[in-house]
Amino acid sequence: MRRHWLLFAQTVTIGLAIWFIVASLKPEWAGRMLGGTENVRLNWSTVPVQEAPANLVAMQGSYREAAKRAMPSVVNIYTSKASRQRNPMLDDPNFRRFFGDRLDEQDEKQFSLGSGVIVSTQGYILTNNHVIEAADEIEVALADGRKAVGKVVGADAETDLAVIKINLENLPSITLGRVEQSKVGDVVLAIGNPFGVGQTVTMGIVSALGRSHLGINTFENFIQTDAAINPGNSGGALIDANGNLLGINTAIYSRSGGSLGIGFAIPVSTVKTVMDSIISTGQVVRGWIGVEPQDITPELAESFGLGQKTGAIIAGVLRDGPADRAGMRPGDILIAVDGQTVNDTTEMLNLIAQLRPGKTARITVLRKHQQASLDVVIGKRPLIRREQRE
């Protein structure tokens, strides 16, 4: 009995070995050996695979349609300006004795690059003031390969915005979005010409809204984003997921000169106001009352015995200016403009700047812990150059 059992076990083992070899080399034979069952071994080259639909990329969150809509209206801007370079050897008296002034100052051209956004089929382009500032020549290169000479229509150093114009036909123009509908976490795309490599699109989100007190511009209300913004992106477009313009890229926070995920764009609400004023009058007209404001810090609040930490302390009043004529004094705390609460100096500047020169505004101040209302005839804010505010 034991001998028969060993013989059976050996027979089964040999049979399984033979079947395994046959199944590996000739799977169709193995199928017949198992009663005609075919395709026992899965052949992945013949397994039906469902192909992804053509629009699967878009369905999975692609923003190619937004980029496609906006990219034609984003341009590269190349500027040049003449500068005089002094040969350092001229500082050596022995060198000057032998060569005199033959190596005197020489004219050289400095080149820079940036980006811009076509906002009108009539050829108006928005960019940063620092992109075209003091430029002798401006060349605009479109995404379709065309080039044109750009002429400055006007600039505003206090928001770092400028409008230039080109004379070409069939120009694509971007659609202005509504930044007031944007929320932190919304997807945004930055389009520009970083480091001069060519038109580039980067993606990120809205990191914050209403950023101020950064010391970049006089009037600040930035959109902060982590979409990569690098040198050359200045003046380019920050768009929403539908391809609408949300802002003009203007600055980055960086210790290395490259993107660290903290970029700032001027919101389209500010952009539109500045653009309309520049196109219609060649400059931006803002309200002004002639005071030197200062934020209320905890230390100042304690030293002045203030029970509140909002408002703006009037540190100085320009003699015979609008505020002086209305009776405002140093030490007053400005807390409201035409009924709108002022939390800090940034809000105060923005509220007054929006007022039309010649208009009488009701300004509320705290003076010796008592409220007082002053009727101030708004003046016209003096034009300030970029170098004057730095």
UniProtKB/TrEMBL annotation:
Pfam hit, one: Trypsin_2
- Highest taxon of source: Bacteria
InterPro entries from the UniProt entry: Chloro_Bact_Ser_Proteases (IPR051201), PDZ (IPR001478), PDZ_sf (IPR036034), Pept_S1C_Do (IPR011782), Peptidase_S1_PA (IPR009003), Peptidase_S1C (IPR001940)
Which residue ranges run through the membrane? 6-25
UniProt domain PDZ: residue ranges: 278-369
Q: Which residues form the active site?
A: H130 (charge relay system), D160 (charge relay system), S234 (charge relay system)
Q: Which residues bind substrate?
A: H130, D160, G232, N233, S234
Q: Which CDD domains match?
A: cpPDZ1_DegP-like
UniProt keyword list: Hydrolase, Membrane, Protease, Repeat, Serine protease, Signal, Transmembrane, Transmembrane helix
PROSITE patterns given in the database record: PDZ (PS50106)
- Does the record bear rRNA processing in its keywords? no
Q: Name one GO molecular function term.
A: serine-type endopeptidase activity
Q: Which GO terms describe its biological process?
A: proteolysis
- Would you identify the family this protein belongs to, as annotated? Belongs to the peptidase S1C family.
Q: Which NCBIfam families match?
A: degP_htrA_DO (TIGR02037)
Name of the protein this chain belongs to: Do family serine endopeptidase
Species, as recorded? Noviherbaspirillum sedimenti
